[in-house]
Amino acid sequence: MNVTIEKLIYGGDGLAHHGGATVFVPFVIPGEVAEITEVERKKKFIRGKVRELVTSSPERTVAACRHFGVCGGCHYQHIPYEAQLRFKTEILRETLKRLGRIDWTGPITAHASPPWGYRNRAQWKVRPRGAANIPAGIASGPGINGALGIGYFRAASTALCAVEECPVLSPRLVETLGNFREALAKGELPTALREVTAFADSSDTKVLVNASFAGFPSSPTGLMKTIRGAVPGIESLLLNDLSRERMELDGPGFLKYDAGGFAYRVGHFSFFQVNRFLVEELVRTVVGEASGTAEGIQRRLALDLFAGVGLFTRPLAERYERVVAVEANPAAVRDLESNLSSSGGHTETREADVESFLREWKDTPDLVVLDPPREGMAPEAVSRLAELAPAEIAYVSCEPSTLARDLAALTAKGYTITELHLFDHFPETFHIESFVRLTQRP
After folding, report:
1. To which H or E segment does residue 117 belong?
2. Residues 330, 351: Cα–Cα separation, whole Å
3. Is 166 noted as a catalytic residue in this protein?
4. What pTM, to 2 d.p., does this model score?
5. How many CA atoms lie within 13 A of 262 on its CB side?
């Protein structure tokens, strides 16, 4: 069937209509006419893939990565970067209106990122691959015929797309991926390896590596030596035996990440912003000079909820008399406490989930910073937050749909949106990071 793409929607697909059904198609641009092959059909729902472009958009460009369209990591490499920003801005505005009835007519400030080399963290899957797919230049070696491939899952699949390049990664992670790929192809690493996570520091020189195995095939000490020999520059290495929930650490267990004049300790199981180019800009926007300047807002007490390792807590401590940071992940709490140790006695750390913390908290804060996971805030937490009546709320979101839901609840309880920002932390993908500032209505 031929369909005309009407718009892009969150999730990476283009939307069209045909015969009374809504049609979803990946790797298209609004205005294009595509002949599609049906992949899935329900009563009023069709999912298809492009067989041929009947009419191509003049904006269409050639993807930079040879794996685009097979690998499930990127969705927009066929779209020029400036157009990606425009489409994402439209998607954010439309999602807030459709799901939250937030009719924001003001500007959405877009914070662009270099579209390539931006990721400081990557997670690679490891699975068997055929000898025909061994990278060029590696013609022989122990175990070559049963070599493992490393890469990402294919789009809408759990099958491996073994990759030989990934242009969204930082140079250090590109090198790390190549080190693992070559070692696997030569049979130098055990076949029980299932997943590798790598995180690069702010200078893009040192890496934190988690390696997960279906079972340790040899002594952990020997395995650590093998991995370090194959992958130079590892600051800290954690081995995880999935069969016995056993872990072995070689190194300090963290690396230091510099951002905004502060050095943050980030451990193996702690979250940190993925885009190495926008970290400082995000912090400046959330807790910079705009924060606390609205009429009547003081700087007595700030709450940093879902605080992680303290990315926002550290600069907040420079501006507020008292800052309370709340984080539920025990590993992140250890990093958070270390990062706040030099902030003086006016910062406090609470190891608790946000819902439980808010139920017990009584003091009215001047500012609340929120940076929840994709699930957003629990409804009871939003209600309790509104009862506490902070003068200002700074909401960082990585999921527009749950942001729309939470903003609808907050605006219904007396808050007004004063700023809306789009941080393009994930160029070439459909993902949207946004920031919203809210203040109490008079």
Report:
1. none
2. 7
3. no
4. 0.92
5. 25
